[in-house]
Amino acid sequence: MTLLAVERIKLFSTRSPTFSIPLALGFAVGLGAMFTSQSDDENPATVGVTQMGYSSGLIVMMAMATLSVTTEYRYNTIRLTFQAVPRRAAVLLAKTGVVVLVSAVTGLIGAFAAWGLGQLVKSDADLALDSGGDWRAVAGVGLVYAVAAVLAVAVGLLVRHSAAAIAVVLVYTLLLETVVTSIPALGEHVQPWLPFKAANYFLTDGQPDRVTEGVSGNTVDYPYGPWIGLLFFAGITAAIYVVSLITTQKRDA
Length: 253
Prior knowledge:
By secondary structure, the chain is an all-alpha fold. The protein is about 75% helix and about 0% strand.
């Protein structure tokens, strides 16, 4: 508990959470409301449509999670921490736990706020959480944010430099998977095995095509169920996180 308290204090003593949390909530709620308000008879408002801003908020929270690590390397406070607590794994697990909790709560609040605002924006639409897919589309956002936070911490531990680590996160989440899935004759076969696409499938399975892959529609069939998609995302993340812990143990602080 002491380590968790210390890591909580260190995280909130920086400016990153102060800007990141409101920004992530703003993206999730604002974009969700915008897409919901633009719904019509041809493209009706659904629970999934209210959550179409989640990915923008996710990127912001991943940047915050990355900075929670790289900022310590930048100012060499990580060296003092490791001197005070020689068990590096314990320190990093505590740091990860705090970041994961903050990210998960932010994602959950943003998702339910976006859903609630969607009901106000489109009061005549049926936005009740009537199915498992509807609940997964909203409540599942917190799980995706939590796993993504672990991945972002791992990237921060491996790269160490703030700008470079954030660049890796942004390039992969915003560009690389999209480019790969756009390759003719290859994209549709690779898409189910890309971690963020699997996470998106977990949230959007059962929703309209314009929700599953943005406004462009989705014709890819996933060879597994939505919960397996989340487990796949978590498994890839766990493997990278373990590598980051081992690397940190062997490196000089």
